[in-house]
Each structure stands twice: as C-alpha cells, then as structure tokens.
Specification:
The complex is a heterodimer of chains A (100) and B (95).
Chain A (H helix, E strand, L loop, with lengths): L8 H12 L3 H20 L4 E3 L3 E8 L2 E4 L6 E4 L2 E8 L1 H10 L2
Antiparallel strand pairs in A: 1-2, 2-5, 3-4
Helix pairs in contact in A: 1-2
Chain B lengths: L2 H11 L5 H20 L4 E3 L3 E8 L2 E4 L6 E4 L2 E8 L1 H7 L5
Antiparallel strand pairs in B: 1-2, 2-5, 3-4
Classes of the chains: A alpha+beta (100), B alpha+beta (95).
Chain lengths: 100, 95
C-alpha cells in the first residue's frame, strides 16, 4: 500500500480549488464552514448524519468511579457528553474493497 | 443535522454559489476523506478530530440465525477520534 501523508484542511481546499475552479481562499473558507456547521450542531446537542459518509452520535455518560492507574487512588469521573462516529456501510465497503 | 441541512446552511452563507456547486463542494469534502482512508492514510482536522482506520484480525463468527460457524476475514475499519477542542465544546453549555 502506498504511504501517504495526513490529509488536512489545506489538502481538502486544494482539491476543491482544483476540481471546481473556486479561489484558494474561497475553497478554504468553505472547508472551514462545513466543519463549523457540523461542530455547531453537535455543540447544540444534535447528532450529525451525512448519508454515504456516516453519523456523528452524541452519548451522555453518567458519573462513574475511576482509578488513577499509577497510584491506584479512586477518583470520580464527572458526567460528560462524548462523540462517537459510525461509518456508513458505503465507507466501510470502500475501505474493504481498496484492500482486495 | 442531516446532509441537506448542511447544504442549506452553506448555501445561505454563500449566495454566490449555485445549489449544485454547494453540493459538489460538500461531496468533494466527504469523498476525499473516505478516499484517503481507503488508501490507507489518515485525516487530521485540528479542533474537529482525526479519521483513521484500525486493523481487525480475522475471527470465527457465528451466524446468529442458524448458529453455524462463519469465517470473518481480517479487515480495516474506519475510526474517528474527536479533537480536544471538540470534546471541550460538547461539554460547555451553549450561550
């Protein structure tokens, strides 16, 4: 398999710039806007579902007792909201097919 | 929020773009991420999170209906780790 660097905002903007002919600045601004809107929705407690890609699902966790693994001291873990990603079947298939 | 609501929000902010252009931008965005994962790479979006793939060993599974053994081959599965800033924002009340 080819060794690849890490894909970043700049790479996404570059592809939009190349494929659509929008300016680099506008392309980057659009990448930021997509992330900002998804982030805002999740901050408001909404799940985000992108068909063909996957779902970002929020889960509320209750307080539980944890332990400092180094000292063994028990500490309460505060209740918190966590984010999980469930990939769409399409994404799973594309990844599996690439390896065959 | 679903995909169509994301398209609408981006469209409203960018009156200079046609609806089909907004759609194409959003499609490229998610497609490039999937493509990179398929190629074995990772995607890092600071503040938002990082996408990567994880290896799953082959295992013997069971067909829950018939109880028969089935071989599940090794595979890669997508994984997302939320960024620090995102985790923080999820736990602060929106003003």
């Amino acid at each position: 398999m080819r060794m690849l660097g890490t894909l970043t905002r700049a790479d996404l903007a570059e592809t939009i710039n190349r494929k659509m002919g929008l300016s680099r600045a506008e392309s980057l601004q659009l990448v930021e806007a997509i992330l900002r809107h998804m982030c805002q929705a999740m901050s408001n407690g909404e799940n985000v579902k992108i068909s063909g890609f996957g779902s970002f699902i929020l889960r509320d966790k209750n307080e539980r007792i944890g332990r400092n693994p180094k000292t063994g001291v028990e500490v309460p873990i505060t209740p918190r909201r966590v984010l999980t990603f469930r990939a769409s079947q399409l994404m799973k298939d594309r990844i599996q097919q690439a390896d065959m | 929020m679903i995909r169509s609501q994301l398209l609408q929000a981006i469209g409203e902010e960018n009156p200079g773009l046609r609806a089909d252009e907004v759609e194409k931008v959003v499609d490229i965005f998610f497609d490039e991420i999937t493509q990179r994962l398929a190629e074995g790479g990772r995607v890092e979006l600071r503040g938002f999170g990082a996408f990567s793939t994880r290896h799953r060993e082959a295992r013997e599974g069971r067909n829950p209906r018939t109880g028969g053994k089935v071989h599940v081959p090794a595979k890669r599965v997508p994984y997302f780790k939320p960024g620090k800033e995102m985790r923080k924002r999820l736990n602060t009340d929106p003003e």
